[in-house]
Amino acid sequence: MKKTFFPVAVLLSATLISGQGYAQDNKGQADLAAAKSSGTTPTAITAAGTSLAHAAAANTISRRAIKDFKSRFTTVADEEWSRMDKGFCAYFIKDGFKVRAYYNARGDWQASLKYCSESQLPHFIRDVVKREYYDLAITSVTIVEVPDHLVYLMNLEDSSTLKVVRVNEDGEMDLLKDFIKSN
User: Fold this and answer.
1) Which string of b and e fits 16-33 if b means at least 16 CB within 10 Å?
2) For residue 57, what pLDDT is reported?
3) Of 144, 147, 145, 154, whose CA–CA distance to 176 is shortest?
4) Model pLDDT, residue 58
């Protein structure tokens, strides 16, 4: 199980670091600009009865993805959808977490990434990290949720080092990257 999950976590962390997972296509931007210039509001109700922040892009989002999103994230009403090369991404804020939910082209949920601070970590997970790296500050946290798995990716640093660690939901920790800062 660990061997199959590691490539997924590495892929998602590489996407986070490179920033490629957040790109929007220009079609959605043009559609949104056209909707604004025609006097319609960007928030509208689609044929599926779903409220979307970017209504112009609603025609390009899979109905299956929207349906799954509404059942998975029941209290969210102000999500922003974007089309990606091989699927869709919904961005929203829930319970103080910035969240991105990823769907494939068929509309199947693939993963969710939650961004938070050290203070929002479960105490058990924070304790696991601080026992090993007590002298490093937790500078960023990404909670990666994929089907049947949950993992915490954290950047830890001090004045001379930067470490990227992964902690699974059972408290097992792995060091993914270890960098030395140049002066």
Assistant:
1) beeeebeebeeebeebbe
2) 53
3) 154
4) 58
| pLDDT > 70 fraction of the chain, expressed in percent and rounded | 67
The residues near 91 (Cβ < 8 Å, ≥ 6 apart) are 79, 80, 81, 82, 98, 99, 100
Q: Which residues contact 132 (CB under 8 A, 6 or more apart)?
A: 173
What gap in Å lies between CA 177 and CA 10, rounded to an integer?
A: 11
pTM: 0.69
CB neighbours of 182 closer than 8 A, spacing ≥ 6?
Answer: none
Closest CA to 154 of 111, 181, 117, 123: 117
Cα separation, 144 vs 110, in Å, equals 11
Tell me the pLDDT tens digit for each residue of 123-171.
999 999 999 999 999 999 999 999 999 999 999 999 999 999 999 999 9
Tokens 């993992």 found at: 151
Per-residue tokens: 179: 């960098």
Looking at residue 79, its amino acid is E
Three-state SS at 121: coil
pLDDT tens, residue by residue, 51-86: 444 444 556 899 999 999 999 999 998 999 999 999
Show the domains of the chain with their CATH numbers.
1-107 (no CATH), 117-183 (3.10.450.360)
Residues 6+ apart with CB under 8 A from 145: 111, 112, 113, 114
